[in-house]
Structures are given as C-alpha cells and as structure tokens.
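Okay, is this right?
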Amino acid sequence: IAYTIMCKVKGSYFKLLASVMVVGVILNILSSGQAYCIIAPLAAGLCLSLNEMKTKVGAGIAAAAMIGGCTAHAYTYQASAWGVIMKAGANYIGPTEITPLSIMIHCWPMFFVSLFIVWIISKWYKPDKELGEVVYFQEQLALMGKVTRKEKANILIMALVLVYIFTVGVHKMDVNLGFALLPWLLFLPGIDGADTNTFKKMNVTMLFFIASCMSIGAVASSMGMADALREFCTAILQGNNSPTAIMGIIFAIVFVLNFLMTPLAIFSLTIEPMSALALSAGLSPIPFAYAVNACSEAIILPYEYVPYLVIYAFGMISSIDFIKINIMRSIVFFAGFLLILVPYWKLIGLF
C-alpha cells in the first residue's frame, strides 16, 4: 500500500512529503498506532536511495514520517495509549464512549493541520536542486512480488480486527477482545497464517514497558501529584470554565511532563484529575481525554516519546533539525488544536 501510493509522486517535493505522511496515517489505522515501526525504515530506505541522509531532503522526509507515523496518533487509534487512558479514566468514561471510530470522527480536522505542517516543512527544508523522478518505490514494489497465500490470510484477519474495533459502538464489546482473540484465527488449519516461529517475534517487552509506565503514573498519583494538578488547575482557572482555557492548561501541563515522564505514565497520572476537572466545570470528560492524548505529541527532544525516537534513530535527520522542526510542529499543532479542533467540538456538541 505504501509503495503503491508513493509511486504516484512525480518529482514534486511537497507531494513526496505529503505521500509519506498520508502513508503513515493509513498505516496507523491499519496497525492501531504502530505505523512508526513501518514508516521509519521505509523513509530511511528512500533517503539512502536518494543519498539524502541528514540533508534538507532527509530532514523533510523524516519530519513527514514523524507527522504521519506519530503525530497522527492525535486523530487515529493507538491501542497502547488508549488502553492506558481508558483504564485511568474508567470512573468517568464508559468503555464504549471512546472508540477507534469516534476518535477519527471527533478529531479528523487535525489531519489538515498536519498536512499544513508538512507544507511548511516543504518550503522551509526545500532541496537545493530538483528532486526528479523517484523510482525507488517502483523498484521496491516490484521486488515484493505477488501476494502470497500466507499474506492473504493475514490481510483477512487484520480486516476482521479492523471491522471489530471500528464497530465497538455497535456491538458494545470490549475493544481489547478483538486484539486478544481474533489473531489466534491465524493458527487454525486451513488458514495457516502463522506458526510457532511467530511467537519468537512477539514484542513481549512492550507489555512490561506499558505496565512500568502505568506504575509510574500510579506512584505519582499515590504521592498526591494528581490532587496537586487538580488544585493547580482550579487555582489558575479561578472559576473560568472556558474549554479553551482548560485546554491551554492541559497542553502546558502535558508539555512540561513530557520532559520528565513517558506519555503512558502521563496518561495514567493526568486523565483522572483532568476528567474530574471537566465534570466540576459541567463539561464532558471525553474531549479532555482526546486533548491529553493529542498534547502528548508536543515533544521537542527525541527521548520524550518512543515513536519519535525510533524515527530519529534511523539517522535521516540531525539533532538540531529535529529540535527546530519539532518546536515549529508543536506550536502549529497546538494552534490548530485550539483554533480549529476546539471550535469543531463545540459545533458537534462535545462541549
């Protein structure tokens, strides 16, 4: 899918960056938020083929990969993040009130904000010479050969998982059951989409990582940080129940915490007090859960969020360019959040 879309690029630098971003968004939808694992090596391969590692073009491609593969988590479903958010906010948000489909329906305007950021980068990091035809994607697509029977089986099961998670609002079952049960169909005789070697490739360490991140948030809450955050926000607001003002405070808090904690730990710590703050202001906690998730994408340094670190680690972009681009990206993204997404939420009745 990625190579097929990128084959449409005909020498336009902006179209190239936009296609990288769009591919990242599509992969996020198909993989429930794991696009960065796929888009990072794909983008690095493109940079190597063009001999553009750590150049303006390399920085632009890396930035597009980050925006599509990482920032898109603000308007697509990331299973690990929302698993923590829904657990932390269980006392305020029902198990089917936020679904993969509702996230996209409620947050889709941020796609166009992301596309605008890509346009800025295409002007800011414009190549010194014409890009020319990009044949790398045609070559890679040809090397993949025909779709095998095993690949077809995996496509079928992935489609079933997607149908399940996007219809949670209809069947009202726990979204996590789709991830927990449906993949086992690959082992059934006649399907044979996986074998015992598949277990060796499972990222078991991620389970421990998520648990440790939740523990950080839980420990912080037990030390009174959640109560302190709620009291701090109440003192700053001084009775102001404006959603825009509260969103601004959420952004500032999450932005600062990103330097100190992983986003999953931040979710574990902040969702409960932010939901309580929303209810005390007579507002739904749902948009505030969206806000905490989206604001976690406002990072500047690579270590702050693993998906960005993964893309940075492929060496396409220098550290100074990474910092400069992400300062701009965070500013424009938050401005779009306040000026476009919040009014949209008011229009559709989330506030």
User: Anything to note?
Assistant: The two ends are 37 Å apart (CA to CA). The chain has a mean pLDDT of 88. The CA atoms of residues 109 and 341 lie 6 Å apart.
